[in-house]
Amino acid sequence: MRYEIHWRFLSWLLVASFAVGPLFAADPELFDAHIHYSRDARDYLSVQQALERLRAAGIRHALVSSSGDVGTRELYALAPELVIPSLRPYRAPGESASWMHDESVIGFVERRLRDGRYAAIGEFHVYGSDVDLPVVKRMIELARDYGLPLHVHGDAEAIEGIFHRDPAARVLWAHAGFEGPMRVDALLRRYPALWAELSMRGEVAAGGKVSESWRAVLIAHADRFMVGTDTYTPWRWDEVLEHAEWTRAWLADLPPAVAQRIMYENGATLFRAWLQSATAP
Ligand SMILES: [Zn+2]
Q: How many Å lie between the centroid of ligand 1 and the Cα of residue 28?
């Protein structure tokens, strides 16, 4: 009898561990949609250290772009299973406000796309009607020609301008544009190929609780949000682990299926073709 109970308990445990796997597994893995390893970060920590920090934080895939591009390529060369390389149109840190007026950017991006292998174009900064400037227009055309999504740090007007120019574009909206939840909701409803990542949006959650104004929007568009760290400055690399823990804590306040999509699946879905080709023999 005693053995029978014991055996029953073990069977239950076995079934339960399959049903609620994460209880027994390591921290759930993250798709980090906003990592930079720019020139200044390369002076601060080595490629190996950067990769160690991403891995220690449980980041399975990271969308990486850098000012200049060499940092992205170095990370990708050492960790193609982790790094999803995006081409930033900045040749050095500090070009975020000037790049759209510098037509020499076009040749740089064209050469890189021709000679390299990238999963996206961005992250770049663009606001309002600046999407009509020749350099930005060319980025939108190149994304279309190469079948790549754009990673855009811009306001709602810029996002509308991009879809006006190319209704078939795919756009990952950095920081959800720092727009409020109602505006983000409206744009996600209007553009089915718009995704929003929540890096640097600390107000979405506090103390492991999702704010009420965001909760409904996150659940309504559970297949369109992602998370990200945004290592926009070297010291931000010191916070990758802590940020990942903070992210998991507030995602746990959402229904598990919603949290899992935002934490990992949406990024993996947007970059599915890339990930399949990257892991193909
Ligand atoms: Zn950024």
A: 24
Contact between 59 and 37 (Cβ < 8 Å): no
Structure tokens that stand for 255 in this block: 């229904």
Tell me if residue 252 falls in helix, strand or coil: coil
Cα(96) to ligand 1 centroid in Å equals 10
pTM score of the predicted model: 0.90
Q: Per-residue pLDDT tens for 136-155?
A: 999 999 999 999 999 999 99
**Number of neighbouring beta carbons within 10 Å of residue 46:** 11
User: Where are the domains positioned within the chain?
Assistant: 30-279
- Yes or no: say if 198 and 176 are a contact pair by the CB < 8 Å rule: yes
Ligand 1 is an ion; its neighbours by CB within 5 Å are 123, 230, 232
What spacing in Å lies between the alpha carbon of 209 and ligand 1's midpoint?
25
- Separation CA 233–CA 206 (nearest Å): 23
Q: How far is the CA of 25 from the centre of ligand 1 (A)?
A: 31
| CATH number listed for the domain at residues 30-279 | 3.20.20.140
Rounded to the nearest whole angstrom, what is the distance from the C-alpha of residue 281 to the centroid of ligand 1?
32
- Quickly count: other Cβ atoms within 10 Å of residue 44's Cβ: 17
What pLDDT digit, counting tens, does each position of 16-38 carry? 444 444 444 467 899 999 999 99
